[in-house]
Fold this protein.
Amino acid sequence: MAPRAQPIIGAGGVAAGGCVVAVVLASFVGLGLKAEVGRGIGPAEWAAIRFTVVQAVLSALLSVAFAIPLARALARRRFPGRGVLITLLGAPFILPVIVAVLGLLAVFGRTGWLNTGLGALGLPELSIYGLHGVVLAHVFFNLPLATRLLLQGWQSIPAERFRLAAQLNLPPRMVFRTLEWPLLKQVAPGAAALIFVICLTSFAVALTLGGGPRATTIELAIYQAFRFDFDLARASLLSLIQLGLAGGAALLALWVIPNFPLSAGLDRALTRWDARGGGQAWADAAIITFGSAFLLLPLFAILLAGLQGLPLMPPVVWQTAGNSLWVAILSIAVLLLIALPMAGWISTRQRGSAEAIGLIGLSASPLMIGTGWFILINPIADPVPLALPVTALINALMALPFALRILVPPMRDVLGAYDRLARSLGLRGWAAWRWLVLPRLRAQVGFAAGLTGALSVGDLGVIALFADPDRATLPLQMYRLMGAYRTEAAAGAALVLLAMALGLFWLCDKGGRWRVEA
Amino acid sequence: MLRLEGVEIAQGDFALAADFDVTPGRRTAVIGPSGAGKSTLLGALGGFVPLRAGRVLWNARDITHDAPGARPMAMLFQDNNLFPHLSIAQNAGLGVRPDLKLSAEDSARVAQALARVGLEGLEGRKPGELSGGQQSRAALARVLVQDRPVVLLDEPFAALGPALRREMLDLVRSLVEETGATLLMVTHDPQDVRRMAEDVIFVEGGRAAAPQPAQALLEDPPPALRAYLGV
């Protein structure tokens, strides 16, 4: 078939995608100016590479390993609160990292609930800092993600297969072999690859729970080289290493990474005839209880400590909260300006070819782009006043891959159904957006905006590079309070931040779905 | 006059050739076995299916490469003829101006067209709030305000029951009689042909035959058409 005629939307998509690529490429230029590749990779860099890979591998494997029994239990059990629990599994995605870390500290930290209990029993204290703390936090964030991915897979097994298995009276072992194992083979590697890539560029977790020569990720090493030594050459070199590692992994993982389970609809419960045995039922109940406790206790701890800490917060918290809100709103605006035309353009192309651009956000790490831009801006202007806009821009880029995954499939559906009608009416360009695409995609646009707002408001990344004492976002201010051992005030700030992240998400998401037409 | 000049359409293994004129103002049925290419022929006329060779001319003007919306044609598809999130007045209004910036005069035309198809008072409804027959009427109101000299119907009433379908076809017939538009409609049903069509284009074996007077053709069908009709 001859090439299709001019698509009705997507004219600005190439320009928007070009802007994204330009922002990233410009940072490469900055890095290239400063990096002294000849200096080579020293032992400290090797240690950072090793730690980054080891923690990412462990985080991926453990998250998926725990997610398998949890997803299986959730897939085949129905109990009151199941829907709420599955919704909550989506919450860590929009939970600010620093808030979660504070919650984990409250449960697993030196004076946390676990160690208090161990101490009462006369058992030795467990330390949350270092490799196992980093992995613990990553599992906390990614276990829900892996569970949702697997649950999505489980629910793709047609009910008829389970009916057939029941009819044949297959024992649990055979149900696993014939139905569940083929599925796991398909979904689990992709889930692990996705988590691996996410953990490679982890910064805030390593900043708060890692550190020292034995627990420094590359991202953290960039920050330290930049912030403590102001060694831009070393920061640039580390950034290029990060790019090679994360970019390479993202490219490889592109083939196996599954669709992100961001949409709802996972709370549908199938009728299952197998696994009625007492042993399996008890095991499932135990797994669900344990899993929910692991995920909910830290949140509960934040709530508790935060309420006590609210009156102890210094006024600067509110000022930084205002900064964060501003950054988040700017991020949402930038994201929509980039993501909508890009999604429009991608939707009119062949499947799978152009989504890769969105992955730039995953492989190019925030600190890498931040370092590159700092080097470029520094000779021309003082980068510090630009800290907040640059943060907003980079946060939007980080949210881009998720936004594209949210927007592109329904946009393809809309074009599939209404492209002919729109073309026969001569509906195109802005009119097509105004009268066709935006009204049909309101819910998804709201969802993407909410996700971006929540991610941006809670982000502790590039702002840490640029900020000075007068310019901070709320997550950074929280980190400063934690560093000053003002834990109660930090907990209060955490509660404010949590409320802001959830509130932004809720507002945008509900706004998109408000009076949405069938 | 609509002229198909040495038209060839190819999609994978499928190929269709057509070379004929369609008499202006006539109602022409496009019939033939499933998969013969009836919808493809209409799609090519509407500008949705590219030609491998040949030209489509309207009043001696080459429209082969015109965008669908720029052709002198209004088309109704098998489904998705209305945007579900817009009111039927807005849906019909898109036929006047695709950016929906309607003047008072435009809006009056839309209201008039909706009244003509029997949807007075329902202008603010969304398609989902209407019955199947009313949805078809709304789509026809849009065709009416589009005011194009050629109307292409690719079985838009296939999902309606027999009585309702006949009602819609009668409405189409009176609408094109009023406007003088040339009608090309795909159908499966010889009854529809007898009821509606003055001419018939028979599509079979990779070829769309030139229009023949319907009555003569149905009374004495050539062998291929005889086989298709099962008479």
Notes: Residues 387-425 of chain A form the longest helix (39 residues). Confidence is low (pLDDT under 50) at residues 262-267 of chain A. The domain at 50-304 of chain A is CATH 1.10.3720.10 (MetI-like fold). The two ends of chain A are 34 Å apart (CA to CA).
